[in-house]
Write a structure and sequence with these properties.
With about 270 residues, the protein is α/β, with parallel strands linked by helices. Helix content is about 35%, strand content about 20%. The longest helix is centred in the middle third of the chain and has 16 residues. The chain binds adenosine monophosphate.
């Protein structure tokens, strides 16, 4: 495995000589079994695998957790080695943003709702760095978690709307045995908060098939002990759910930690 810490030129030489498909898995580090699942899928399905570890300042709001976001680089590299990742790209801020970009990707209406409403600018910052990392790695295929469902939908839209010609693969959410979705931010949770955080997955699985009212009422009944941001039932994100496959999404603050989760449901 080659660790590319900062150098764009180096990355360029590492990715330019390849025959076969190059896959990228983009992360902010503090890797866990959810990230490992994405990396293993990439390893199984592409000739070359690049992991990026970069905490992107552009997608954090002024009062968010950028400064204290968990950083565990040595453990992250060990996991990447075990999985057989070829290149880990961990750029410094001035490598990604030699100057503050004045052009950003506009997420459009899907970026204004749910997490976009709670975190202004978040999705523009996220799409901008995803676009940059897709170009820098010259990836043919990129793996993203369904855990960040709205993010995945926006990345698919960007790739389609801007004719980027990259395949986007969504990977189902990896959970702890008790249902909690794995997240780097789970490290912030005290033992009590972790117990409270189970309300999110309990809400998502309370009613997997029913009318919108049945699904939403069953979910809402589980959401005690947390500070709810949103609970939404949708199919295309922009509109209410119609009969058929839908998605139930939740965001809540548990103590000082903001968590998100979602799951598929069948709407009658
Ligand atoms: P992050 O480091 O949180 O930015 O996540 C990097 C990638 O891992 C994103 O595509 C996430 O959606 C994905 N991811 C995070 N948590 C999980 C999980 N529990 N299961 C599957 N994928 C995940």
């Amino acid at each position: 495995m080659t660790l590319v810490v900062a150098d764009r030129v180096w990355l360029d030489s590492a990715v330019s000589k390849h025959d076969g498909r190059t896959a990228v898995v983009m992360t902010m580090g503090a890797l866990h079994a959810g990230h490992a699942e994405l990396l293993r899928r990439a390893r199984a399905e592409a000739e070359h695998v690049i992991a990026t570890i970069y905490v992107n300042p552009l997608q954090f709001g002024p009062n968010e957790d950028l400064a204290k976001y968990p950083r565990t680089l040595e453990d992250d590299l060990e996991l990447c080695r075990e999985i057989g990742v070829d290149v880990v790209f961990t750029p410094a801020d001035d490598v990604i943003y030699p100057v503050t970009p004045s052009v950003r990707i506009d997420p459009g209406p899907t970026g204004e709702i749910l997490d976009g409403a709670s975190r202004p600018g978040h999705f523009a910052g996220m799409l901008t760095v995803v676009h940059k990392l897709l170009r820098l790695t010259r990836a043919d295929v990129a793996y993203f978690g369904e855990k960040d469902y709205q993010q995945l939908a926006l990345i698919r839209q960007m790739v389609r709307d801007l004719d980027m010609g990259v395949e986007i693969v969504g990977v189902p959410t990896v959970r702890e045995a008790d249902g909690l979705a794995l997240s780097s931010r789970n490290r912030y949770l005290s033992a009590e908060d972790r117990e409270r955080a189970l309300a999110l997955s309990r809400a998502l699985f309370a009613c997997r098939r029913g009318t919108p009212a049945e699904i939403l009422d069953a979910a809402a009944a589980e959401l005690t002990g947390v500070d709810l941001d949103y609970l939404a039932l949708t199919d295309t994100l922009l509109g209410p759910a119609t009969p058929g496959p839908g998605r139930l999404l939740v965001a809540a603050r548990v103590g000082t930690t903001r968590l998100i989760d979602n799951a598929p449901v069948e709407v009658c």
